[in-house]
């Protein structure tokens, strides 16, 4: 077998070509067989299904871009009438799906307590989970939002730390929440309510 997973065999009507796409932790083994004069590059829908199965967070446009970007074609060419976007390379498309993080991170405030006369200490916790086999990019930063006396929340700070000291408003009833943002720009959805609540005298 060659380095790119190709095997050539002598058939009764001519040469047979076999292509193997290997994965480190396969969940299934799929065999696609076709006749002479056909090529494995015609099975775009199969490759797209494999990509979506591996990384269900991908949008349809992500899958289409992966199939186009990883297709094999002559250098410095795009779409052509003969090859379209090129010959499908399912192995490269699957590898691209593994490296594409579309999962939203999550975070919450686990402790909110007054500090001194006019400050508050917040302790944050977050994670950037992803489907099994997909590499998460990791949390890049946290946005801290505050609501005072029930008014709409405002963005008051951005931090990479998990413990922050922020100015508070004495005598106010304040609630806080965080929005995590990962290294590729995926943002946590805004929560319906605050994680931490503080009332300073």
Question: What do you see in this structure?
Answer:
The protein is elongated. The chain has three helices and nine strands; from the N terminus they run ββαααβββββββ. The chain has helices spanning 44-54, 60-70, 90-98, and strands at 6-11, 14-19, 106-115, 119-127, 139-148, 154-159, 163-167, 173-182, 196-199. The chain is of the alpha+beta class and 201 residues long. Strand 1 (6-11) and strand 2 (14-19) form a beta hairpin. The chain has two domains: 6-98, no CATH class; 106-199, Immunoglobulins (Immunoglobulin-like, Sandwich). Helix 1 (44-54) runs parallel beside helix 3 (90-98) and helix 2 (60-70) crosses helix 3 (90-98). The strands form three sheets. It has a four-stranded antiparallel beta sheet, with no helix packed on it. A three-stranded antiparallel beta sheet has the order 3-4-7, with no helix packed on it.
Features of the shown structure:
single chain, 201 residues, alpha+beta, Immunoglobulin-like, 2 domains, 4-stranded antiparallel sheet, 3-stranded antiparallel sheet, 3 helices, 15% helix
Architecture blueprint of SSEs:
Blueprint: E1 6-11, E2 14-19, H1 44-54, H2 60-70, H3 90-98, E3 106-115, E4 119-127, E5 139-148, E6 154-159, E7 163-167, E8 173-182, E9 196-199
Antiparallel strand pairs: 1-2, 3-4, 4-7, 5-6, 5-8, 8-9
Helix pairs in contact: 1-3, 2-3
State the low-pLDDT regions, or none: none
* Shape estimate: elongated
CATH topology of the largest domain: Immunoglobulin-like
* Strand-pairing-aware structural class: alpha+beta
What is the terminal separation in angstroms? 75 Å
Question: What is the N-to-C succession of helices and strands?
Answer: EEHHHEEEEEEE
CATH homologous superfamily placement of the largest domain: Immunoglobulins
């Amino acid at each position: 077998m060659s380095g790119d997973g190709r095997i050539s065999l002598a058939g009764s009507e001519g040469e047979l070509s076999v292509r193997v796409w290997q994965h480190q932790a396969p969940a299934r083994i799929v065999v696609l067989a076709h006749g002479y004069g056909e090529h494995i590059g015609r099975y775009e829908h199969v490759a797209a299904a494999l990509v979506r199965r591996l990384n269900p967070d991908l949008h349809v446009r992500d899958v289409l871009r992966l199939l186009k970007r990883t297709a094999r074609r002559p250098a410095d060419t795009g779409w052509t009438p003969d090859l379209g976007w090129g010959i499908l390379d399912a192995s490269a498309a699957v590898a691209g799906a593994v490296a594409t993080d579309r999962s939203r991170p999550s975070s919450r405030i686990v402790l909110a307590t007054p500090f001194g006369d006019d400050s508050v200490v917040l302790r944050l916790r977050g994670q950037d989970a992803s489907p099994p086999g997909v590499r998460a990019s990791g949390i890049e930063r946290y946005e801290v939002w505050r609501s005072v006396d029930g008014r709409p929340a405002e963005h008051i700070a951005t931090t990479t730390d998990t413990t922050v000291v922020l100015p508070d408003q004495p005598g106010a009833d304040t609630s806080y929440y965080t929005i995590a943002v990962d290294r590729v720009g995926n943002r946590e959805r805004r929560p319906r309510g605050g994680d931490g609540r503080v009332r300073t005298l």
